[in-house]
Automatic annotation (TrEMBL):
Belongs to the binding-protein-dependent transport system permease family. FecCD subfamily. This is ABC-type transporter, integral membrane subunit. It comes from Marinomonas posidonica (strain CECT 7376 / NCIMB 14433 / IVIA-Po-181). Keywords: Cell membrane, Membrane, Transmembrane, Transmembrane helix, Transport. One of its GO terms (cellular component) is plasma membrane. GO terms for biological process: siderophore-iron import into cell. One of its GO terms (molecular function) is transmembrane transporter activity. The lineage of its organism: Bacteria, Pseudomonadati, Pseudomonadota, Gammaproteobacteria, Oceanospirillales. It comes from the Bacteria. Its main location: membrane.
């Protein structure tokens, strides 16, 4: 495998960053109203408030692209961490109920308590993701055999279904607030105020950086708890830190983009097939690939039924469902 060499991995990292930049500029130029790359560049270098192109980029498309980058990167990294923590290749925030729990708390409080603050949504999403994650982990651990990959997948499916049913019940009861929260259920990266999004950027970056710092410990943890303890690792602390990172990144992504599934499942496997299992490379590359994939999914959503748009959560589900079935089939054949 050529990519086992650090120089090759560095080249892949640089190429991935260039692809992300291309996808980012495509996101702010392509759509129902097409804008040239030249005008896109001028919107940042020399902003003209009289130019329709500049106003569209600065007021709508820039925030949309930034949100897609943050959500895609956060979901991908949380998927990597969750798969490492549970040693389950099917693990992801959407499948394990973390997203569903975060969506439920946001819909509940926005419908009955008229909460509209994005910062408040972040905390609500964190609480909902924490409760869902704890329930899945608790249910998956019941029994004499303890936690197992199959049991935790079944627990995640059950908790996801439970919270989605609760969410639908809340929406039926509070129909007058349906339009304001519907995009959290379907998933969307549009309609965010850039002034509210920008202060959150450092928090997402900090979470990803912490995950990268923890990469060497994750590599050791994958050898097994006994081996990790023998090498001086405090496995309990590492697992708690990883759980907090998963909940923070997944909950924050729901607060910004709603229920966008399968990014956390697909991206880690795609990156792993290229650079292997070393999390020092796997985590940063997953962040770049996750951001790029969600930007491209957003572009596809704009053009499928133009002039209307398909919710981005639907687009990622169409891409991710066959991938999930492939992984499940592959795992069944190995079993």
């Amino acid at each position: 495998m050529l990519s086992r060499y650090p120089v090759v991995k560095l080249g892949i990292l640089i190429l991935s960053l260039l692809c992300l930049l291309c996808a980012f500029f495509s996101s702010i130029t392509f759509g129902q109203y097409m804008i040239s790359f030249k005008q896109a560049g001028m919107a940042f270098i020399s902003f003209d408030p009289q130019s329709i192109d500049h106003v569209i980029i600065r007021t709508t498309r820039l925030s949309r692209a930034v949100v897609a980058c943050l959500v895609g990167a956060a979901l991908a990294v949380s998927g990597v961490l969750m798969q490492a923590l549970t040693r389950n290749p099917l693990a992801s925030p959407s499948i394990f109920g973390v997203n569903a729990g975060a969506v439920f708390t946001i819909v509940l409080f926005s419908t009955f308590f008229s909460v509209t603050s994005l910062n408040t949504f972040l905390w609500l999403a964190f609480i909902g993701a924490s409760v869902a994650g704890a329930l899945v982990y608790g249910l998956g651990s019941i029994g004499k055999d303890g936690l197992s990959p199959v049991r935790i997948v079944l627990s995640g499916a059950a908790i996801s279904a439970l919270f989605m049913a609760f969410t639908q019940g809340v929406l039926v009861i509070g129909q007058e607030g349906l339009d304001s929260v519907l995009f959290w259920v379907a998933g969307s990266v549009s309609g965010r105020d850039l002034a509210l999004v920008v202060p959150l950027v450092p928090l997402f970056i900090l979470g990803i950086v912490f995950a990268m710092v923890a990469a060497p410990h994750i590599n050791i943890l994958l050898s097994g708890d006994d081996v990790a303890k023998g090498l001086g690792q405090n496995t309990v602390v590492i697992k708690v830190v990883l759980s907090l990172l998963i909940i923070g990144l997944a909950g924050g992504s729901v607060a910004l983009g709603g229920n966008i599934g399968f990014i956390g499942l697909m991206v880690p496997h795609m990156v792993r097939s290229v650079v292997g299992y070393d999390h020092k490379w796997l985590i940063p590359l997953s962040a770049l690939w996750g951001a790029t994939l969600l930007l491209l999914a957003d572009l596809v959503s704009r053009f499928l039924i133009m002039p209307e748009e398909v919710p981005i959560g639907v687009t990622t589900a169409v891409l991710g469902a066959p991938f999930f079935l492939y992984l499940a089939r592959k795992g069944g054949e190995r079993g």
